[in-house]
Amino acid sequence: MNPAAQPGFFTPIEKDFTMSREQIRHAKAELDHLGSCTQAGKTPEQLAEMDNKFYAALDKKAQLERQLYDANARRFGRPTMRELEVLARCSNHKF
């Protein structure tokens, strides 16, 4: 029997995509938590630290989404985000 036909078996590519989606879910949960934290009674330094953590989590989530998009694009022969950005700059189109 083909191991790929067994239920619950993932190919290495499918496993990477599953892990990437799970990382994105985790980053989104972290963003939701940081976005819902109360700012009442915090010092300016604590507020600045909260802002830094929030924007770092936002960047991490965007990076993970970009990596997943690029992996899918390469898998199916589509342009990656970087290639789309270069095309947009060269042709003055927005995607």
Task: Summarize the structure in words.
- It is built from 3 helices and no strands.
- It is flat and about 50 Å long.
- Helix 1 packs antiparallel against helix 2.
- The longest helix is centred in the middle third of the chain and has 33 residues, at 44-76.
- It starts with 11 loop residues before the first helix and ends with a helix.
- The chain is 73% helix and 0% strand.
- The chain is mostly helical and 95 residues long.
- The relative contact order is 0.10.
Counting DSSP E segments of at least 2 residues, the number of strands comes to: 0
Percent of residues in helical segments?
over 70%
SS summary, helix count: 3
Radius of gyration: 19 Å
Question: Helix and strand succession?
Answer: HHH
Multimeric state of these chains? Answer: single chain
What structural class do the secondary elements suggest? Answer: mainly alpha
Shape call: flat
Give start-end ranges of low-pLDDT stretches: none
Mean pLDDT: 82
Distance between the termini: 45 Å
Please indicate the percent range of residues in DSSP E strands (runs of 2 or more).
under 5%
Major β-sheet annotation = none
What's this model, at a glance?
The protein is built from 3 helices and no strands. With 95 residues, it is mainly alpha-helical.
